[in-house]
Amino acid sequence: MNGEGGAPGTATRPTWRILHVDSERTWRGGERQVLELMRRQRRRGHAPHLAAPGGSALAARAGGEGFPIHAVPMRGTWDLRSAFTIARLHRDLRPDVVHWHAARAHALGAMASMLSPGPARVVSRRVDFPVRRSPGSKLLWSLPLEGIAAISEGVRSALARSGVDPGRVRVVPSGIDSTPFDAPVDRVALRARLGIGAEEIVALQVAALAPHKAQTDLLRAVALARVGAPSLRVWIAGDGPLRSALEAELRALSLGTEVRLLGFREDVNDLLRAADLFVVSSYLEGMGTATLDAMAAGLPVAATRVGGVPEIVSDGLTGLLVPPRDPGALAEAITRLALDPELRARLGSGGRVKVLEFSADRTEELTEALYAEILARGGRTRNLRSGEHGSAP
Question: Which of 66, 182, 225, 295 could staple 355 via S-S, CB 3.0–4.6 A?
Fold first, then answer.
């Protein structure tokens, strides 16, 4: 299926049909990365398709942009019916590449590839958790897989420590579109609309309320920081299973006015442009596209030195890095930023420059290079026929 397009005597790069498989139902950073990737693949002439649970946030958004959507329930890691459905998509669509996103998608996609082999297999790894040592996980990572796209060197290292062959791993950093932050904004009016007082210093976090995000450490840091920075306010945008526990911790620490749990927000860009600094409290973090957004918005970052975070936050240049699970150190960094507007401005300016290295265009280019490498290795590259871009045959 190898071929070249264009008129006789000319050569153009091949174009491919790609089946993305994402099992998540909510909208998080990984799903945003899938959609950004699909957009750019379509612009380059490829034909990306999406297999996802019906009604998932990613399926709704991608379908609204005209991408072909294939509903697959993906009710569990070993949902055989869903694996058979994905295998049927292999036969019907004949994709050149099947690209799995999230752990459940990996498991179901691997089973589907055993039932209906053919497309080159790629998995994105976005977390720096060690690969589980359970028999099922060991089996999964031993199955044939042409490429692993790790979003940071930190994730790549975690895979290597788990026994995954580093020769199969390529670092493909997450990327964002920073252009929404280029437009001017009336920050005073925006802050007033959001209810931020003129003297208040707002530290923002955008993250799921999940154990590895360590918001309990953040709340304890705020309890310490408010002594030296009484004008500090902390807003946490995101939802998740720990909301009730965090609300209880807020009450126990008497942080009723200093911290707000905002829940899931569609206006995150406005929140970023109204805030004064950004906080990452995680003890595990693959990289963090929300942190990239914060840097694009010109915010200095107080962050834990974990996973891929040091690859985007340079200590003393774009933010301040502290050890994980150390509320005292985090409180000190937050207080330092809250009390020093000149430091905030300098680190924020550094972040605006640094984030240019992490564009969604670059993510797509590196992903395409990975596809090309594994397809050439397997001799499976083909060209799409005219009219096949963006719709099912």
Answer: 295
